[in-house]
Specification:
CATH topology of the largest domain: Beta Polymerase, domain 2
Order of helices and strands: HHHHEHEHEEEHEH
CATH class of the largest domain: Alpha Beta
Number of strands: 6
Oligomer: single chain
Protein name: Nucleotidyltransferase-like protein
Strand content: 5-15%
CATH architecture of the largest domain: 2-Layer Sandwich
Distance between the termini: 51 Å
Largest sheet: 6 strands, mixed
Number of domains: 2
CATH superfamily of the largest domain: Beta Polymerase, domain 2
């Protein structure tokens, strides 16, 4: 029983060490992929057992602690990114955009991009809209697992921040979302979030 307790305690300690190292990678090296950050942290610490890897929630908790100590300016940076997101979402209001990714979750840093989702069965309409607004954009290479070949991922810049706009069919909105799309917020949700943050500050 003593050995089992000791092993469990050692595992918890390793998980915490990996989580804090991954948090530092995210905060300082601007890594936004939690899976990659935790694997890189584990390799750095010489850990190969996948069962020891911390959960994303543990990394988020470690990241919050890290930023509270070493990056106290982070809250202001996050608010600025969310304000930018609201501005762009208002511009895209006719497509009912959703905010997703690190700016929504709160782990974004000053070099993070803003990830938006729009669902439409007419993907060309989004590009035509951007052209009419004289917004220069580019097509990003879709991930290998991308299932909607005709629906692009577009990138453009707003106020020194890159916006990644994921165009997806309406059917995808009704289906179970992909893992990275599970957390999403409407324009009204983000505005409420900003109001909540402002209340906490003042």
């Amino acid at each position: 029983m003593g050995k089992s307790f000791s092993a469990d305690r050692h595992t918890l300690t390793l998980r915490a060490e990996i989580a804090h190292h991954a948090a530092r990678l995210i905060a300082e090296d601007h890594m936004h992929d939690f899976a990659l950050a935790k694997k890189k942290a584990a390799r750095h610490l010489g850990v190969s057992d996948a069962h020891v890897l911390p959960s994303n929630q543990e990394i988020e908790d470690a990241l919050a602690s890290y930023r509270a100590i070493y990056q106290p300016e982070h809250d202001g940076c996050l608010q600025e990114l969310r304000h930018k997101a609201v501005t762009v979402m208002r511009l895209l209001r006719s497509f009912t955009p959703w905010l997703t990714g690190s700016v929504l979750s709160g782990v974004a840093g000053d070099h993070s991009d803003i990830n938006l989702l729009v669902y439409t069965d007419d993907p060309k309409s989004v590009e035509i809209f951007l052209l009419n607004e004289r917004i220069e954009y580019q097509h990003l290479e879709p991930p290998p697992t991308h299932r909607h070949a005709l629906y692009p991922t577009l990138a453009f810049w707003y106020d020194d921040t890159q916006i990644k706009l994921y165009v997806r069919p309406r059917l995808a909105e009704r289906q179970n979302p992909r893992r990275e799309e599970k957390e999403r917020a409407s324009l009204e949700d983000v505005q409420a979030l900003l109001e909540h943050d402002r209340t906490l500050i003042f």
